Prior knowledge:
Two copies of one chain form a homodimer.
Chain A: H1 9-19, E1 35-38, E2 44-54, H2 55-58, H3 65-83, E3 87-96, H4 103-119, E4 123-131, E5 136-146, E6 161-164, H5 170-178, H6 187-198, H7 204-212, E7 218-221, H8 226-237, E8 240-243, H9 250-259, H10 263-268, E9 276-280, H11 285-294, E10 300-306, E11 311-315, E12 318-321
Helix pairs in contact in A: 3-4, 3-7, 5-6
Amino acid sequence: MVPTRCLGEHEIINILRQRLELMPDMSVPFGDDVSAVPIGNDGKMAVLKTDMLVAKTDVPSKMSLYCAARKAVVMCVSDFASKGVQPTAVLVALGLPKCLATQNAVIEIADGLNSAAREYGAYIVGGDIGETDDLTISVSLYGMANQDAFMLRNGAKFGDVLAVTGLFGKSAAGLELVLGKDCVVSSKNRLALESAVFSPHARLTEGLVLSKNKCVSASIDSSDGLAWSLYELMRMSGVGFIVETLPVAAEVVEFAGQNNLSIEQLVLYGGEEYELVLTINPENWQIAKTVVEAVGGNLIAIGKATVEKDLILMVNGVKQPIKPCGYEHFKI
Amino acid sequence: MVPTRCLGEHEIINILRQRLELMPDMSVPFGDDVSAVPIGNDGKMAVLKTDMLVAKTDVPSKMSLYCAARKAVVMCVSDFASKGVQPTAVLVALGLPKCLATQNAVIEIADGLNSAAREYGAYIVGGDIGETDDLTISVSLYGMANQDAFMLRNGAKFGDVLAVTGLFGKSAAGLELVLGKDCVVSSKNRLALESAVFSPHARLTEGLVLSKNKCVSASIDSSDGLAWSLYELMRMSGVGFIVETLPVAAEVVEFAGQNNLSIEQLVLYGGEEYELVLTINPENWQIAKTVVEAVGGNLIAIGKATVEKDLILMVNGVKQPIKPCGYEHFKI
Lengths: 332, 332
């Protein structure tokens, strides 16, 4: 008998997609960062998203329950941010192991959930509790948006500027530290890198202002890693990308050098970062940069969309392929 | 050092409620079966609910993955049914153990989710996947309703008829069989009782028609058991109840007799049943019964709401208290 092969996350998602009857006329394609359902006939949409945090894979052991609960909300808000939608209401399905059914643990979780929801202008309006072997927090978000406000994954055009809202690599480097690996690091850098793991931020303000000004042709968040996000934009939009400048954080350059790690690996394939990855028509570049900076954010051009459907990194004038890799459950 | 006490589900929920900042002016009170958020100013509400199925506590080992996935959706639809709201969109956060990351298992789960969603007129519009130790399915529902259409838990008045949409006890009796306990049972009864466990139904049609006709003063589903539902209606409405007729299924009478089990225990404290428990002003009783029967359902009067805030079962003219008990996580 041939042993049954264990599927990867993307294979599982593909099977689910194939077996489900899709809602007719979905204005946000199935598989984009959020789902949307029409409210009436005036273009208003109910926007929905669910995201699942599982302690075993998403919460390093040094992370507090407060931070874990906060992260569960941030992960989901980041998807709303990437589409330019304000979340209004949060639902939480909390799977709690018996050892965490204590007053202190529940207070920490409640406070983490609440503070993240309020930080992004939403309220927790309901939820459910179950007993699980491992802490599991499924967060669902609801918001409302006009149909023409969505920044989808599929709108990138040849010649568009490829941009990100921040520098990369800190989460991947921070994870090395948090997991207790033997690394050389200054105290200042340790704080910056570990904070990226413990206290991530979603780029909601940036997403909202970009959507309002309609200057983005495609958008995705980078929670599965920069390379994976680029690959998804490419697949959905039918273009390719050339990355001319790696958006690497200064702390990551230092950390990689001190520990003989690859900057490219940390920046491209790390994941658990919540920057937006965007394409912008060159005509809109200046306005996009201006409005993002006006709300205290950054917009960093890192390359451009190409006709050739390849994902290329240009290093010192030499082209090298970026692998379509990122964090994938069930593959480790 | 005093050992930390393990909290029960209701204690955990109370802590969460206390720590969360509530959304101002919620038209459905926090803790009712669903949550609702205003859409604009015309009384239209986005209705939201999340429910978590965990294999360890909610899926007997003999239950197929198809049935487990279907049940996860039915549990959540039942809450919408109890408020009289049509679900439109379903989100699924699927926690899959590695041993179920196979094509056959994923197909079964996808088909169970899809068939339940379509059965109740909704579509699965998105989701997320994570790797968990135990199968965990968090289902979130979205629908839309007018503010005045909700059948809340808090509207029962003294003198109202207490009614249910079906007979009770089959799930609790079926669970004895499914768990392999040594019971006397006919083949016909086994099928009926086990079906109640494997293939539950939500009373959505009944809930929708009752809401449309505005004949219900309070409503809740009975997923945590009839006694618990009555206790919740009582607590939220500030009335008491006297149950004059136990709504017991014929199969349960026979099964209890053959196996020396208490009918009251099976009917009142079983849980995992998805009937609606309703209160209806006597003036509306006939119309309520007529409209429910017109859609193929049943409405069974089992008692009435009382001024005294007690939960009483009347058996052969003798009053006995019903305990405010039901299934509670973390207590077993």
